[in-house]
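INFO  loader      accepted 1 record
INFO  loader      residues=229
INFO  predictor   begin
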Amino acid sequence: MGAVKGKRVPRAVREQQMMDAAVTTFARRGYRAASMDEIAELAGVSKPLVYLYLHSKEELFSAVIRRESAALVEAVTAAVEPDVAADRQLWSGLKGFFAHTAEHPDGWAVLHQQARTQGEPFVREVAVMRAEITEFVTGLIAAAAQEAGCEGELADREVAGLAHALVGAAESLAEWVNVPADGDAAGEREQPSAKETAATLMNFAWAGLGRLMGGERWAPGTPGPATAP
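INFO  predictor   done
INFO  writer      dumping tokens
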């Protein structure tokens, strides 16, 4: 009998292996410096196979951004606890966000550091993901306003602005938690847990949101928060 051939790896599995290698390479080398040779070597395949399956470096990078974006959005939405108060839903969603970015630092680096600095079409890919998360957070804040009985006082534009501010703060905090500052030795700073990081942002944002929903608003030149008429 002839020698038995090894099992062939399905194309879908092989593509994911290549994309895993691409995420690592793009995150650690940068989009410009990363090479298809490096990606192929890390994936354990030939460079022609990478081109056959995933085409050009640009198309591969776009595919990586879409995959990592979808995973992040899914992690956030899946983490939200249903049928609880709005603040609890927001907190659980933030925990999901920080847990995912901590568990997938290379994917986060690709989305937050690499894709945003490489121009079109990559910036647009990230913008789609960010808009989806922001829309989701907008819904949570609107639900909180409704629970507090002030949905009429918080205009749609103001709710959307608060959601954009909260998403931006979460991104900045994830950057601080996951990316060591210049000069920091690896592991020198104790990394807070996702639960602790989410609580930090809730302490910063929700206290202010709670006062806003209670009718208090800041005004320049006043010693304390101004009460809405």
